[in-house]
Every structure is written in structure tokens, then in C-alpha cells.
Amino acid sequence: MPATETQRAVEAVWRIESARLVAGLGRLVRDVGLAEELAQDALVAALEQWPSAGVPENPGAWLMTVAKRRLVDLLRRRERYDRKLAQLGRELETGAADGTSALDAAAEEQIEDDVLRLIFVACHPVLSAEARVALTLRLVGGLTTDEIARGFLVPEPTVAKRIVRAKRTLADAKVPFEVPEGADREARLGSVLEVIYLIFNEGYSATEGDDWMRPELCAEALRLGRVLAGLAPDEPEVHGLVALMEIQTSRSAARTGPDGSPIRLLDQDRSRWNQLFIRRGLAALDRAHSAGRPAGPYAVQAAIAACHARARTAEQTDWVGMAALYGTLAALTPSPVVELNRAVALGMAYGPAAGLALVDALRDDPALAGYHLLPSVRGDLLEKIGRLAEARAEFSHAAALTRNGRERTLLRERADACAERLSTPAADGSPVQYANDYGRGEEY
């Protein structure tokens, strides 16, 4: 097999097997940093040996075997390791008579628990949000430091430092390699879901740069969500988050034009929405609701997304129901950003003046200072009721605030469109003041 072809095979295997490999090793050594080092050693061995020897029939088992051998070597060098680790090293080295140790058998039985432990460790609240995202993508997602850096448009050394600091923080805090129980698990699950959704959101609407979307981040977040749903099938909010991401992902092909420019939700060609993703999302939402517990924030957001997914046209959208769902979400997670989205739904359900009244009440909220979607939403509502001069100013303000190049261009175009309409004389010679014939959904 040519070297380049082998390298691609190694990369593919690593993306599939790395989480299970690091998780299994992490359970043995109780140290995420050490577990990743051993896994990386196994990856280097694969890159060295597979070009000549070929890809093994069971590459995951091959990697684990090599990693265990590296662990044995490490244990031999560390004479001060306690008796338990020394005994572990002897078992890993000798194995059972049939070539399979009891430890190997246990590892096979506990593989799903191991991955779940790894997710909870990587997303531990003791870490900053940035560190949790980087460590999760590295350990659970199998992404390289360079891939993470490119995904979030930050220098590779910055990501590398975050990962190193995160491992050190986990070690210093003596975070146990386990899935928490009871109330602690409930609290930690929120951190896990937050990290996965942060990754998805950055891919869905890039914070900065020249690309409107980063599909690879959306795909990775959705993959992690599906893994978590399989590992924690009784957690309704896990299914709620998966439902939300599936439905949002269904629109990907319709969200940009041929040149990569963004297309607003209500202007999208819905025939390009992926029905498979929609069906998966609605099924996940059903699983969240069937748990028999009150809907959490992710399930409510998924229900909002489902209002769009079920409507064949923008006009058929259940805006009244969506406004009510935003009210429920605001009660669950009070936030000015949620209120801003509720204003959009109110504007669509009851007229732009209703939405504008809520937006105006949010203008002095310090949490929204510098948030470009506030003037963006206000501009849209003002445009609809014919206050074009004010709308133009709001769109220009929003364009100055956003760090995403594609979004800046769109907002400037909307400001220019308002200016053009202002300069267009009506039949009686006065400037034309009129609203556009479409509204804003949840994206521009």
C-alpha cells in the first residue's frame, strides 16, 4: 500500500478509535494526559509499521496492544510506582495462557463506560470553556491540534497550551476518571452538553473569518452528540441536543449561495433541506419527550427548530406556537439573547411592532452591548414597519460589530437596500417608506 494511502488509513482509524483507545487507557492509568501520550505512541508506531506491514485486520486492537506495551515499558522505568501498578504491568506483559488477560476481557466489557468517562472528564467544570472544547475535540473527537486551531481560527500554539494546561489542571484537581452519580452527574451533564453545543454553534455560524459556516465542526459535534446519546440513552436532554443539531444541520445546503454568501432562513429553498436529518431530529425529539420528564432547554430549542422543519413554506410556520416555546425557554433559562429571539418570533406572530417593543426594552441591557444581532434584529423590524432610515443605521451598526466577513457583507447590503428605497420616489413624489415582504427567522 502506498505511503500516502496508508497515512490516510491511519488517520481514518485514529478518528474512529482514538476516543476508545484513550478512554480504555485512561481507566487503567487514571491520568488523561498519560493515556493520550500512550495512545499517541501507538499512533506513531502505526505510521512507522503499517506502510510495510499493511493495515491489521483489527486496527483498534493493534493500537491498544502497542499502547499497553508502551505502558509496560513505562512501568519498568518507574520503580517508585506502587504495588498495584507494578502488578498491572506484569499482567499486561505476561497475559493469560490463552493470550488474553482478565484485564483485556474487562476492558472489552467496559468500553462504552470508558468513553462516557472520558467525555465527562474532558468536559469537567474545573476547566475553562475554551479548554473543555479543545480537550474534548482532542481526546474524544480525535482531532489534531492543527485541526482544532483551524476550526476556531486561533494559533496552533494557543490550542496546544490550552490542552496542556487542561491536562495539568485535571491532574492538580485530582479529577477522578469516572462518570459522576446523582446530582453531580446531572450538574456535569450540563457542562458536557454545553461543550458539544459550543462546538456545533461555532461551526453553524462562525464567530469570525470569511466563512459563514465550518461544516467540519458541526459534523464533529453531531457525532459526539450521537455517541453520547448511545451511551446515556435515558437522558432526555442528550436527545434534545441531538435533535436540535440534526434539524439545524438539515439546512446546511440551503444556507449559502454558490459564492458562499449567507441566505436567510425565510429565503432558503426548503427543497434543499435534508429530509433524512429532519427525520432523525424529529425522532430524537420524540425520544426526549417520551422520557416523561419536563422538557429541558435543549429539547425546547429543538421543538422551536422543528416548527421550521415541519413547515413546507415560511408562511406555514407556526409562529404563534414558536413564540410560546420561546416563552417557555425564557422561563427555563432567562437570558437577554433568548428574549431577543423571542422578539423575532413575536414580530412574525403578532406583527413587527410587537417584536420591536421587546427589542427596544433590551437596548440598554449590558449583556447585549456589542452584540451585533441586537441592531440586526431591530433593523429588520424597523424595515418592516417602514422606518427605513432607522433600519439603515441599525444594519450599518450591526455590520460594524460582527467579526464574520460574510455576515458583514450581508448586513451592508441590507443597509444599502434601505438607502436605495429611501431615495426611490413614490407616485406622489415623496420618498417611499415600505416594509420588505419577508421576515427574519432565526438567522440572517
Description:
It comes from Plantactinospora mayteni. Belongs to the sigma-70 factor family. ECF subfamily. This is RNA polymerase sigma factor. It holds the Pfam family Sigma70_r2. Keywords: Coiled coil, DNA-binding, Sigma factor, Transcription, Transcription regulation. With 444 residues, the chain is mostly helical. Among the domains are: 108 residues; 103 residues, no CATH class. It contains 20 helices and two strands. The chain has a two-stranded parallel sheet. The longest helix is centred in the first third of the chain and has 27 residues. It is elongated and about 85 Å long. It starts with a helix and ends in a 22-residue tail after the last helix. The C terminus is likely disordered.
Task: Give structural attributes.
444 residues; mainly alpha; two-stranded parallel sheet; 20 helices; 1% strand; elongated; RNA_pol_sigma_r3/r4-like
Work out the oligomeric state of the chains in this entry: single chain
The ordered H/E elements are HHHHHHHHHHEHHHHHHHHHEH
Mean pLDDT: 83
| Poorly predicted segments | 96-103, 105-111, 430-444
Please summarize the sheet with the most strands. Answer: 2 strands, parallel
Give the DSSP E fraction (strand runs of 2 or more residues): under 5%
Distance between the termini: 47 Å
Helix content: 55-70%
Strand count = 2
Radius of gyration: 26 Å
